[in-house]
Amino acid sequence: MLHVRVDKENGQETINKLRELDLINREYKILNDGTYVYIPVNKNNIDFYTVDIEGAPSNRIEPEKISFSYDIIGSIAIIKGKTIEDAKYLSDFLKTRKNIKTIYLDKGITGEFRTRQLTLIYGEPVYKTIYRENGIRLMVDVSKAYFSPRLASERLRIAKEVSDGENIVDMFAGIGPFSILIAKNRESSIVAMDKNQNAIDLLLENLKLNRLRGEITPVAGDSGELIQQYENVDRIIMNLPHDASEFVGVAYKSLKIGGLINYYEICDLPTLEGRMESFREMGLELVYKRVVHGFSKYQNMYSMEFRKL
Ligand SMILES: C[S@@+](CC[C@H](N)C(=O)[O-])C[C@H]1O[C@@H](n2cnc3c(N)ncnc32)[C@H](O)[C@@H]1O
């Protein structure tokens, strides 16, 4: 297995150069024998001193076998793991990716603003980054406001479903990924609410970063109260997966007959069935349901769409 060999002192600088050139073989671990650093590379005849050493099978990094996952948001990788040791192991693999400048361990999303508890594992303590998704650009601050790249296909599905002219309330808008993608593609009028002022400030930045066909009005505050000012709404987006059910009653009142709710919930199957039953009794007909992703052994993140009868 071909490795670039450098003195320990020049290790990090050489790793950075090789990353820039996209030469590192990410399937193998970077080794350090105390004197030299050995960086696995995927090309011969490169402008560095190389040695051919037999990589022991244990040196092979197999992140798919690690029982936790990671998200890449712009230049930041976020590992969701149990221990710092496990996170460092995975970060050895992630830091060989050309665009990753910072790696954090996320100890969990907490509080009503759903923000992350982050510990720096690698790189500079940078929190802001530009994330690109489905033709939009978003300024994300991974420490101050919620953002997850995992709903990208869901956001695209909904943006395609919206018609020009719809008036929409995005009740838990965050930094605006649903609202911005919809307004980028449709001449819709969207009120984007969030209780976290930092999320609204980022949303305002994101409005400037994207050329939109529709209009977005950001509003900071409790959407359970704010939504009561609106009536005859065509569509309400409710992405607050642990607590959205508490807000369905007020959302229902603001929705026009025939209007739609895009509803997200993390729950187990019996809870889901109970939810669908109680919404049906309220006068909401289920028109769409799918699992977006797994969450725990018995829980999934569900996407559901309800129509007001
Ligand atoms: C799961 S995040 C979703 C954000 C965004 N829709 C996205 O997909 O990235 C939920 C958001 O709801 C906000 N939030 C929580 N409770 C709220 C409330 N009562 N009123 C308004 N926003 C609230 C949080 O600050 C957070 O930004």
Automatic annotation (TrEMBL):
The keyword Iron does not apply. GO terms for biological process: tRNA N1-guanine methylation. Transmembrane segments: none annotated. Residues 70-309 form the SAM-dependent methyltransferase TRM5/TYW2-type domain. SUPFAM superfamilies: S-adenosyl-L-methionine-dependent methyltransferases. Keywords: Cytoplasm, Methyltransferase, S-adenosyl-L-methionine, Transferase, tRNA processing. GO terms for molecular function: tRNA methyltransferase activity. GO terms for cellular component: cytoplasm. Pfam families: TRM5-TYW2_MTfase (PF02475), Trm5_N (PF18093), TYW2_N_2 (PF25133). This is RNA methyltransferase. It comes from Ferroplasma acidiphilum. The lineage of its organism: Archaea, Methanobacteriati, Thermoplasmatota, Thermoplasmata, Thermoplasmatales.
